[in-house]
Amino acid sequence: MSRVAARVLPPAATVALLLAGWIAVTAGGAVPAYVIPSPQAVVTALVDNWGDVLASATWLTGAETLAGIGLGTAVAVGMAVASGYLAVIGRALTPLLIASQAIPTVVIGPLLTIALGYGMSPKVIVVALLCFFPVALNLMAGIHDVDHRLIDTMRTLHAGRSALLWRVRIPAAAPRGFAGLRVAVTFAPVAAVFAEYTGSTNGIGYLMLQAIPRLATDLVFAQVIVLTAMSGLLLGAVTLIERLACPWNVTEGHS
């Protein structure tokens, strides 16, 4: 079996099995359509509503997601670099790192909406808060867990604090930072939807709130498919960027 087939066939088989199970459950009307719609009904809802409402909602949720990922990643990288220069900064900011995850989204979302209104800003901040933690935690751990033999070798070459950070610690920590970013981008679209639940006039979360009381579960499932595709595209983009930015981390088995 070729390497491409070995990578593509297992997930394709999983998707095929799930689709077959979905068809089997919904065939014959054993389950009401308003509980689990058939795949055909979901595809029809996706196509029929794409031009009217889904496209604009997808673009808005996608923009909120990308902006939140960018903001959360930028803050996480800044915090990790600062802790790399001075470890005490990392220790001082640890309570903020924990607090960013301790506050539930259902609490912080409405508060941000009250403070900032119904625009994109509250959603972007919610996504940034949820993306910030895994990236910052992995980067900071990678920066401080560098092999001390590398540090000692660089010091024998009279490397200063800045050279150690940018030539040893950051390159060593980058793969772990990308690992955290891969985790973050998979749930970032869902975080944007939760933020839209707290107050919005467009977006996938807003459409879901409109569809659920009408029992339009085919439209809800269509939006879930859009969110899944969004997460998959983001995960693929991060994986590609990681391979370009960290070619030393691409092993034979990982490629």
What does it look like?
The chain is mainly alpha-helical and 255 residues long. The protein has one domain (38-247): MetI-like fold (Orthogonal Bundle). It is built from 9 helices and no strands. It has helices at residues 3-26, 39-85, 87-102, 105-116, 121-144, 148-156, 161-197, 204-211, 217-245. Helix 2 packs across helix 5 (121-144) and helix 2 runs parallel beside helix 9. The mean pLDDT is 88.
Q: Architecture in CATH?
A: Orthogonal Bundle
Distance between the termini: 16 Å
Q: Tell me about the biggest sheet?
A: none
- CATH third-level topology: MetI-like fold
- Total DSSP E strands: 0
Total helical segments: 9
Organism: Acidipropionibacterium virtanenii
Domain ABC transmembrane type-1: 54-242
Keywords: Cell membrane, Membrane, Transmembrane, Transmembrane helix, Transport
InterPro entries: MetI-like, MetI-like_sf
Give a short overview:
The protein has helices at residues 3-26, 39-85, 87-102, 105-116, 121-144, 148-156, 161-197, 204-211, 217-245. With 255 residues, it is mainly alpha-helical.
